[in-house]
Write the structure tokens for this entry.
Amino acid sequence: MNEKTKTIIAFIVFGLLLAVAQPALSKNLDLTIPEQPAAKFEKVTFFNTTYYREPPTKAQTMVFWTLTALDAYTTYEGLKNPNVYEVNPLMGSNPSLGQIIAFKAITGKLAIDHLSKNQIHGANALLTYAIYNNNQIIKGN
């Protein structure tokens, strides 16, 4: 007999043994579902500062400060054009380089200290858009 025939015979014998043993096995088989303990859920509220917030990762923090520096640079470069003005009302229409750096440093530190990991992710996305927009203005598009 070849190997394939031996394998087929082994499967047939195994199947017959399972068919014969099934009634004996089913007598001791308990299929009742045990009662589960009640699930407990915490109440979720938004904007509650008493709950744990996952802080930004080191990589997110590095990306945030890099994007903040690029935003400050592109803002300063864009303001060199006399027809361009700053739209952020907290900075005024034509802030100096020192004002831009101070504003970005203060608001950046507050953001890193008080925003969660997911919120910093959103802030990084907004900073990326601001840099893109500043570059479009610098190019004159």
